[in-house]
């Protein structure tokens, strides 16, 4: 720790001595009483009894720039945010708000004070006037999911005029990044229309475009390496059964030349060569708001938002089949590709006793496409995201009582699409009966429109990894594009998420007088209906296609003993089939809040909420208490405590789902059966905060200690933890633990029963209520405004978060068995655990000034180092601290035109290396390097 604190001190001193620095801080303004997140009572935005951070769009560099998620990720009190490509929970096209690193599901996001959903990428940047962040439990006022806090994106509903902005970004190796935004306000106090829009294009950046992104296997065996590639590895065999194997595994002879790495008998394939660091995407986002002052007591408002995002992401040219040594994947001795590879490599298949080389077939560890690169039709995974929301409301005041009645309906339609190998088609093609034009029943292998699929290197002309030409390439045994396209079926998952919400909120001032004035009150009712629908294309739908083989010819050829199957895996080799699902749940709630001015210096707020969920979840009653004491004119103390909760999502309670994930202990991707648990209970939390506020002239500061205690946290059991416990306790056949109570449970999670980690095909896990999670820490904010130096006035601010504790109880599976010990998780990467990375310190130091038409801002951003307790190599056990510098320059050309130049990560610092597929922690750091953006804003 001493090393990075020393570096931080050096940077602080360096920034204080800079001769230029940054703009963005506007002159202090008198902030009127407004309704801010964390209360339904009007209160001063900066002086409330709860820790609320206000980010003003005009004074927060980057907030209205190219990417909202970049600003969100840089906040000291957030961590583990999606927003860049990451195999650790694919997030293509999505970004979220993750307060305290507690998980996006525990942060509630609002738009203009109403529930919106934690997906930031749907918002047009142009409409954001300010962001209000309640850094503490908000469930009492807003309902489930606000354990870590609540974030409200507020629009400027009174804006009049026109604001156009264009931003162009320069990112090394990107094919082009820009966005165009507009905000238009027309009308008057009687009738007003606000319209915001955004058109954006994001260019593709390949991971291998970065020197650190693709490294040798000896440096990082987790950097997108897989034991199943193309070229692959092969076992000589006499017949389509593993009992007929007659030789050891050996790599393809051109493994190294084509860019893979022969490691013992395995040809290791690095799919990181084909991964995106930033995916290609295009989006259109619009927001409409209409306000109509009907009379002095009522104002009608409506909001309509439409967002459409199209993303393309490259991961690997193809995926490996999860079941490799099956009869259908036997390569017969008559296969032309096998015969040619034997002829070009004498001794590769040596004679074995009475079995000559010419009579030997093979089983292989291979995928359809690998080092040769993708074909045009199969090179990306697509994400199509459509979001729409409509809100209608009436607000006003009658007899001193303010009211707000609103109804909102939102719907998100997302389609995830990509290619995977069709098992039966691959088996046919290995028999020479492949291709879209083959009449398979004629049994004419390799002729009359029928083609062989060749898994050997002699089918690859050039390496897409190294560019090397293959001297053993033989066009006579190469695979045609039509065959490859036929083998890889394009399939999709469609997820439709929606909710409709009715809110009634009333507030006013009572006749009850206390020492500091009259008591304010607020009360409300809410009805919410959540809907979720999951629909799979035919090849992913196990109701329509439950088994890998469906053609009777497969039985005739001996590729499968039967068209029935014990497990409905579906017809795809890598992606397991699932069933269509539909969920609907109604939620009812009521709350009350009181503002109690106990004296001129003491303020108290109390609130309570009851929320009831249909079904087996039941109801929960949660209270909240907040206090503020103005001890001196320049010193205030505040404290808050609340009960908070998160109800289990319907997906945890309903039908089972099936996914494919990388399982570290097995060092490969495995099918994961995610089993629902209708017995789940809401997780309960107690959130506390103690704060000190200082304000003396041009200096103001706040120091807040916070703690979150979660009882019965909701999470999905970790396949990595179950696999590790299974192996460590010797639960595989012949292991020392077989017969023990623990192994009886663990063996029930593994298929085939009793298999080794290398041979396991599936792991089943379940959603559970864990034991507990506790996290605590300190938020610090300091600001010196208007300090005179070098002939101008400077603002200096420091914001930081120190996480003192993040501790979990033992990890249990549904039967109560402990599969991994609990303990401290702060300062750890937490790969393989149900947590995001937990750096201990995040801090931002900014220095800014403005004079004449110019403004400058410098922001130093620091993230402390953390550890990986399961690194692939010892050198990656420590993830270094990271320090970057952002610079912003603004120039006001005239009353209508402003220009801004931004340089993010000005010194082009590489992200710290990690033992992960992307070689860096995409949930914490950026891998883009230096990003230069130029923005032109025109106001009319």
Characterization of this structure:
The chain is mostly beta strands. The chain has 10 helices and 47 strands. The strands form 9 sheets. The protein has a 22-stranded antiparallel barrel. A 5-stranded mixed beta sheet has the order 3-6-7-4-5, with no helix packed on it. Strands 29, 30, 33, 34 and 35 form a 5-stranded mixed beta sheet that branches. A hairpin with a 2-residue loop joins β36 (772-789) and β37 (792-808).
Describe the secondary structure blueprint for this structure.
Blueprint: H1 2-16, E1 33-34, E2 43-44, E3 52-56, H2 68-74, E4 107-111, E5 114-115, E6 128-134, H3 139-142, E7 149-155, E8 161-171, E9 177-187, E10 191-202, E11 205-206, E12 225-226, E13 233-237, E14 250-251, E15 261-263, E16 266-270, E17 276-278, E18 280-295, E19 298-313, H4 336-344, E20 361-365, E21 381-398, E22 401-421, H5 423-430, H6 481-487, E23 488-514, E24 517-536, H7 552-556, E25 581-596, E26 602-613, E27 618-632, E28 635-646, H8 650-653, E29 657-663, E30 668-675, E31 683-696, E32 699-711, E33 714-716, H9 719-728, H10 741-747, E34 750-751, E35 762-769, E36 772-789, E37 792-808, E38 811-812, E39 818-820, E40 823-824, E41 841-851, E42 854-863, E43 866-867, E44 878-879, E45 882-892, E46 897-904, E47 931-939
Parallel strand pairs: 4-7, 30-35
Antiparallel strand pairs: 1-2, 3-6, 4-5, 6-7, 8-9, 8-47, 9-10, 10-18, 11-17, 12-16, 13-14, 13-20, 15-16, 18-19, 19-21, 21-22, 22-23, 23-24, 24-25, 25-26, 26-27, 27-28, 28-31, 29-30, 31-32, 32-36, 33-35, 34-35, 36-37, 37-40, 37-41, 38-39, 41-42, 42-45, 43-44, 45-46, 46-47
């Amino acid at each position: 720790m001493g090393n990075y604190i020393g570096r931080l001190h050096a940077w602080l001193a360096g920034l204080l001595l800079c001769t230029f620095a940054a703009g963005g801080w506007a002159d202090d303004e008198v902030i009127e009483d407004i309704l801010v997140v964390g209360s339904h009572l009007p209160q001063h935005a900066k002086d409330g009894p709860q820790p609320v951070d206000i980010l003003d769009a005009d004074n927060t560099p980057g907030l209205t720039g190219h990417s909202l998620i970049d600003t969100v990720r840089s906040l000291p009190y957030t961590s583990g945010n999606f927003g860049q490509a990451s195999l650790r929970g694919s997030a293509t096209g999505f970004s979220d708000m993750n307060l305290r690193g507690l998980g996006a599901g525990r942060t509630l996001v609002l738009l203009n004070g109403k529930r919106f959903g934690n997906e930031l990428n749907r918002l047009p940047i142009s409409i954001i006037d300010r962001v209000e962040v309640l850094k503490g439990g908000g469930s009492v006022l807003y309902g489930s999911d606000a354990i870590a806090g609540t974030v409200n994106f507020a629009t400027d509903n009174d804006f009049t005029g026109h604001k156009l902005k264009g931003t162009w970004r320069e990112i090394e190796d990107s094919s082009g990044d820009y966005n165009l935004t507009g905000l238009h306000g027309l009308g008057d106090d009687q009738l007003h229309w606000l319209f915001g829009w955004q058109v954006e294009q994001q260019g593709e950046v390949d991971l291998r475009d970065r020197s650190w992104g693709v490294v040798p296997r000896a440096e990082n065996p987790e950097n997108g390496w897989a034991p199943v590639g193309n070229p692959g590895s092969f076992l000589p065999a006499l017949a389509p059964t593993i009992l007929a194997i007659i030789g050891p595994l050996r790599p393809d002879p051109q493994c190294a030349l084509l860019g893979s790495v022969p490691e013992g008998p395995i040809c290791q394939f690095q799919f990181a060569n084909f991964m995106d660091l930033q995916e290609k995407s295009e989006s259109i986002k619009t927001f409409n708001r209409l306000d109509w002052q009907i009379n002095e007591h009522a104002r009608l408002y409506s909001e309509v938002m439409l967002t459409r995002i199209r993303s393309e992401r490259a991961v690997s040219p193809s995926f490996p089949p999860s079941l490799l040594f099956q009869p259908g994947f036997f390569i017969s001795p008559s296969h032309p590709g096998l015969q040619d590879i034997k002829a070009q490599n004498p001794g590769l298949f040596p004679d074995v006793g009475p079995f000559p080389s010419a009579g030997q077939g093979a089983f292989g560890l291979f995928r359809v496409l690998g080092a040769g690169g993708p074909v045009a039709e199969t090179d990306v995974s697509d994400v199509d995201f459509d979001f729409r929301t409509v809100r209608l409301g009436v607000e006003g005041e009658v007899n001193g009582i303010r009211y707000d009645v609103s109804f909102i309906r939102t719907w998100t339609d997302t389609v995830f699409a990509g290619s995977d190998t069709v098992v039966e088609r691959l088996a046919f093609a290995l028999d020479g009966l492949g291709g879209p034009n083959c009449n398979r029943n004629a049994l004419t292998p390799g002729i009359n429109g029928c083609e062989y699929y060749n898994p050997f290197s002699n089918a690859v002309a050039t390496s897409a990894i190294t560019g090397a030409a293959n001297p053993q390439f033989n066009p006579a045994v190469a695979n045609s594009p039509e065959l490859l396209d036929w083998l890889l079926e394009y399939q999709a998952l469609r997820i439709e998420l929606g909710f409709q919400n009715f809110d009634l909120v009333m507030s006013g001032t009572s006749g009850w007088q206390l020492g500091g004035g009259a008591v304010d009150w607020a009360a409300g009712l809410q009805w919410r209906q959540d809907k979720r629908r999951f629909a799979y294309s035919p090849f992913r739908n196990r109701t329509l296609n439950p088994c890998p083989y469906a053609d009777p010819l497969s039985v005739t050829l001996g590729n499968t003993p039967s068209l029935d199957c014990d497990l409905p895996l579906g017809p795809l080799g890598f992606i397991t089939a699932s069933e269509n699902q539909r969920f609907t749940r109604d939620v009812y709630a009521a709350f009350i809040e009181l503002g109690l001015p106990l004296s001129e210096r003491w303020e108290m707020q109390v609130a309570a909420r009851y929320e009831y969920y249909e079904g087996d979840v039941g109801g929960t009653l949660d209270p909240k208490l907040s206090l503020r004491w103005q001890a001196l004119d320049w010193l205030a103390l505040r404290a808050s405590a609340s009960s908070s909760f998160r109800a289990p999502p319907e997906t945890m309670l309903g039908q089972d789902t099936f996914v494919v994930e990388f399982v570290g202990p097995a060092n490969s991707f495995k099918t994961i059966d995610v089993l629902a648990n209708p017995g789940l209970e809401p997780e309960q939390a107690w959130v506390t905060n103690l704060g000190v506020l200082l304000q003396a002239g041009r200096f103001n500061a706040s120091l807040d200690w916070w703690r979150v205690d979660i009882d019965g946290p909701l999470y999905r059991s970790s396949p990595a933890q179950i696999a590790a416990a299974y192996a460590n306790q010797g639960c595989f056949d012949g292991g020392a633990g077989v017969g023990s109570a623990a192994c009886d449970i663990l063996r029930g999670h593994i298929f085939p029963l009793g298999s080794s980690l290398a041979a396991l095909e599936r792991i089943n896990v379940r959603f559970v209520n864990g034991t507990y999670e506790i996290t605590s820490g300190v938020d610090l904010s300091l600001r010196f405004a208007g300090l005179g130096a070098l002939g101008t006035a400077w603002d200096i601010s420091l914001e930081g978060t120190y996480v003192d504790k993040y501790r979990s109880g033992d990890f249990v599976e549904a039967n109560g068995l402990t599969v991994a010990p609990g303990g401290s998780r702060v300062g750890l990467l937490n790969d393989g655990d149900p947590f995001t990375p937990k750096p201990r310190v995040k801090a931002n130091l900014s220095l800014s000034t403005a004079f004449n038409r110019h403004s400058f801002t410098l922001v130093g951003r620091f993230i402390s180092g953390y550890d990986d307790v399961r690194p692939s190599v010892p050198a990656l056990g420590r993830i270094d601290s990271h320090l970057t510098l952002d610079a912003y320059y603004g120039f006001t050309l005239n009353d209508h035109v402003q220009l801004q130049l931004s340089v993010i990560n000005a010194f082009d610092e590489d992200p710290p290396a990690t033992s992960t597929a992307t070689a860096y922690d995409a949930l914490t750091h950026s891998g883009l390097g230096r990003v230069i953006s130029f923005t032109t804003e025109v106001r009319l």
